[in-house]
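User: Could you check the structure of this?
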Amino acid sequence: MTFPRGQTIIRRHRLPDGRISSVLSGRVVSDDEHGLALWVDAGSQTLRRVDAAGQPTRQLSLLTALRMTTLFAPHTWQPFRTLMLMPPGAAHSIWWSWRPDGEFASWYVNLERPAVRWAGGVDVCDQELDLLFHRDGTWMWKDEAQFDEYTGEPAFWDEAEGTAVRAEGERLLALARAGAAPFDGRLLDFQPDPAWRPTLVPHWWDLPAEATCWDADYFRTEDVSD
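Assistant: Sure, the predicted structure tokens are below.
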């Protein structure tokens, strides 16, 4: 399936046991041989898990959070305006982030299993290790300690997959340090359609990905732009 430009879709992160861990909403910029590009504007609605007292679980170890009773609470995407590119079959997505004043902030490489499409958007399984790369050439790994903690745990990934995740990150880091595509300045001047507004999480956000009982029109919103 191909998503039309301007359509609101969602990107769901799934926990190792298959449950949804978070949901974000965004607009399709393009969907072609280069991948699915999604615009997530500052102020767009997201859903994140919280504990029974309403406290976010994001700062907890996933090993702890997986064994807790959790609920969803609405949040907003802040402070960046973000363009996310998910290349076909890639074990990563690349995020271009701009500050509210329009200044480009950084590239963010999210290492993840290849995105799985469904009628309402995409599902991804995060592999914890990420890479932050600034325009001035400075960079850093993110969540290395958690990645090491989860590698080898039965619910997550084994040593072989962990090695592959690290290698994928190293490959992208080499491209970034060399100023090679996609870190060669492309899309730094991207501007969304001025008619686009921050998006809301659609009512079908928790529909099973394998559901086939709804046609494509069910997943369209009044926000679709030409």
